[in-house]
């Protein structure tokens, strides 16, 4: 949805890695940002924690204790700062709620490795870390918890369904737009996002072949 909205305005570069926790992601971050020009980065979203919140007994070994989780988030922010991406360009999102019973019901072959209580604890820890770091925070957990659609926002209790993606996008987009406008030196409310390339119909009219 971000890529679609930002057509001809900005490139959306995905660096998320499925299944990763903050410990693993942090270790690879230098490689993930290698080759990216910091001066061209208007906004970075950091959306980690759902895997860290897996129980310590989970065979996936994704669990990361809350104190380390917060430290890892800080290290990620500091690393981005160290290469020239300022904190005012960052958006930190906490993990959404987890529908434990529905997930286990849908996948009885899986061990009950997560719980709603664990997801809530990590969501709170993420908010605390964001406030301490002084970065923009989006409280995804509360947003989803307050939505009456509940489990229907997820495909399996953990991963977002189209409705969940839309809910998240609608909350995230104003912040992304704001940061791009500010990055380009404009003022929110006075400036809007300008496309770098013409709309396709402008090309159609420009290159129209005269009829014979």
Your description of this structure?
- With 212 residues, this protein is mostly helical.
- The chain has one domain (2-206): 3-Layer(aba) Sandwich (Rossmann fold), CATH 3.40.50.1110.
- 43% of the residues lie in helices and 5% in strands.
- The protein has eight helices and three strands, in the order H-H-E-H-E-H-H-E-H-H-H.
- The protein has helices at residues 2-5, 22-32, 66-82, 100-106, 116-133, 140-145, 162-183, 200-206; strands at residues 44-47, 90-93, 136-138.
- Strands 1-2-3 form a three-stranded parallel sheet, with helices on both faces.
- Strand 1, helix 3 and strand 2 form a beta-alpha-beta unit.
- Helix 3 (66-82) runs parallel beside helix 5.
- The longest helix has 22 residues, at 162-183.
- It is globular, with a radius of gyration of 20 Å.
């Amino acid at each position: 949805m971000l890529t679609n909205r930002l057509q001809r305005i900005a490139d959306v570069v995905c660096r998320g890695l499925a299944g990763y926790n903050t410990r693993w992601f942090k270790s690879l971050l230098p490689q993930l940002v290698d080759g990216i020009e910091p001066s061209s980065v208007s906004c970075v979203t950091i959306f980690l924690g759902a895997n860290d919140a897996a129980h310590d007994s989970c065979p996936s070994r994704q669990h990361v204790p809350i104190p380390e989780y917060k430290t890892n988030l800080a290290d990620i922010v500091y690393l981005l700062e160290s290469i020239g991406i300022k904190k005012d360009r960052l958006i930190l999102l906490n993990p959404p709620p987890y529908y434990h019973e529905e997930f286990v019901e849908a996948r009885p072959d899986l061990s009950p490795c997560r719980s709603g209580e664990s997801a809530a604890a990590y969501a709170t820890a993420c908010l605390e870390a964001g406030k301490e770091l002084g970065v923009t925070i989006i409280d995804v957990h509360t947003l989803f918890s307050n939505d009456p659609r509940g489990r229907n926002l997820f495909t399996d209790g953990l991963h977002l369904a189209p409705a969940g993606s839309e809910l998240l996008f609608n909350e995230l987009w104003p912040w992304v737009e704001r940061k791009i406008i500010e990055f380009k030196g404009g003022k929110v409310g006075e400036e809007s996002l300008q496309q770098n390339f013409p709309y396709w119909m402008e090309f159609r009219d420009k290159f129209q072949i005269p009829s014979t």
